[in-house]
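Q: I have 274 residues here and want to know how they pack in 3D. Can you give me a structure?
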Amino acid sequence: MPEISVIIPVFNREDFIIECLDSVFASIYKDFECIVVNDGSSDNTLKILQNYSQKIKIINQENQGPSSARNQGIRASKGEMLTFLDSDDLWLPEKLAIQAKYMADNPECRICYTEEIWYRYGVRVNPHKKHGKHSGFIYDRCLPLCIISPSSVMIHKDVFARTGLFDESLPACEDYDLWLRIASLYPVSLINEALIIKRNGHSNQQSQKYIGMDRFRIKSLVKMLKTFRLNEENYQLTKKILEKKCTIYINGCLKRSKEKEAKFYQNILSELYE
């Protein structure tokens, strides 16, 4: 049984998937399985994957989004620890080895993540200060925006029994949603080395498909308040950031004469103080 499962969701990434997979198999750590969930690709992605059929397990499904694809991979996984890799990202060869050693040396740790190297439109860029990484109980750091890349994480599979899987009702910000649930229960360890390469700015990027991404984060925050057992401090922090995000989103709706949508988020604010 492999110690680590690598889970890669992919949809129409014929231009990226070869480099992605090659970065996985360049790993100096070898005790892993690689599960690729083909989320209904209509280009040559599946044909490319079949060239790796001796090295990977391919799961095909109709297009249902990254949450569903990752969840399929989780359910099919055999490893004690799980890692995810977005199909437009790359790993450095030592990524798995460094994280596996960290987890072995710190058996109380249930999840760790790493620093990142960013490229936008093929040019290396520096992340903004707001994307800074933190270690420990970082729930408050995860509230404003997503600071953890799925491609950087290594996580014990048993964590999902407590937190649940990725929320398949979210077409985007599904990682933000999951990290909130995890960070409310567990400390998150940062490995202060850049071990992944994120390639942003291309037209096929999932986050480029939606305008007003905060509406998905608002949905997650409402869910945290209503259905997740938060301590009082985290409850109040969640309530405060929800109020801020709703106010900004409402103002944007009103500027664009979207009164009906603005009313929906005004009602969310009203419910906070009932």
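Q: Anything worth noting?
A: The first strand starts at residue 4 and ends at 10. The mean pLDDT is 94.
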